[in-house]
Recover the amino acids of this structure.
């Protein structure tokens, strides 16, 4: 997974993007202005930057130009703006931005843009040198089983899926019984999908932000599924 720097002066945007991308397994660093973003880039190189255009101190396009001029633009940068124009997007792309996201950012666009930006920067394995194939020898025939013998089998333990059958105490107020059912319902799907909020949102038909709020309201432990998947 990648280290992603989110630069935005709006606390709500930073928190939401951090929550979504953390759930996808990425490590998130936050900066609320260009000064903090500069300081982080001097210390480390993130794999990707989500950069807001309109910020109180220095705008995102100016910061993008600075990084490009000083040789620090060695990672993909996705620009974000709620007041952007086509000219702004073209200018950002001209100075090295890999994509432009218009606020409010939809979940699908965010994840798709992040995935595409990271795929483009993933190093491909170097091709084998010419003539290397001459050093590759097939397994000796002596290592093959004799006629009439079978190859040994290797058994793999496949963990059982979470149980879809559970019992509930119905001798309780309706709201408590409903909350207990919903909590078990979401815990079942989280375990089944190895903690992936994206797949659970698709399975349950809920918007991702609504799903986050629902799980927190029900007291579902999201970290448990992440630990189990790692």
């Amino acid at each position: 997974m990648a280290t992603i720097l989110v630069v935005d002066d709006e606390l709500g945007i930073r928190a939401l993007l951090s929550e979504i991308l953390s759930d996808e397994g990425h490590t998130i660093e936050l900066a609320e202005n260009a000064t903090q973003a500069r300081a982080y880039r001097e210390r480390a190189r993130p794999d990707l930057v989500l950069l807001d255009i309109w910020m109180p101190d220095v705008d995102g396009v100016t910061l993008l130009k600075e990084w490009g001029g000083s040789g620090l633009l060695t990672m993909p940068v996705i620009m974000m703006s709620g007041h952007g124009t086509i000219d702004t997007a073209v200018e950002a792309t001209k100075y090295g931005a890999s994509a432009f996201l218009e606020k409010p950012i939809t979940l699908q666009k965010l994840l798709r843009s992040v995935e595409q930006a990271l795929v483009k920067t993933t190093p491909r394995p170097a091709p084998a040198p010419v003539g290397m194939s001459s050093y590759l020898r097939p397994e000796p025939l002596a290592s093959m089983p004799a006629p009439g013998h079978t190859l040994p089998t290797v058994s793999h333990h496949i963990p059982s899926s979470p149980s879809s059958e559970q019992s509930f105490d119905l001798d309780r107020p309706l709201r408590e019984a409903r909350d207990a059912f919903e909590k078990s319902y979401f815990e079942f799907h989280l375990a089944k999908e190895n903690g992936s909020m994206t797949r659970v949102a698709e399975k349950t038909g809920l918007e991702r932000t609504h799903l986050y709020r629902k799980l927190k309201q029900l007291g579902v432990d999201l970290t448990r599924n992440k630990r189990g998947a790692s």
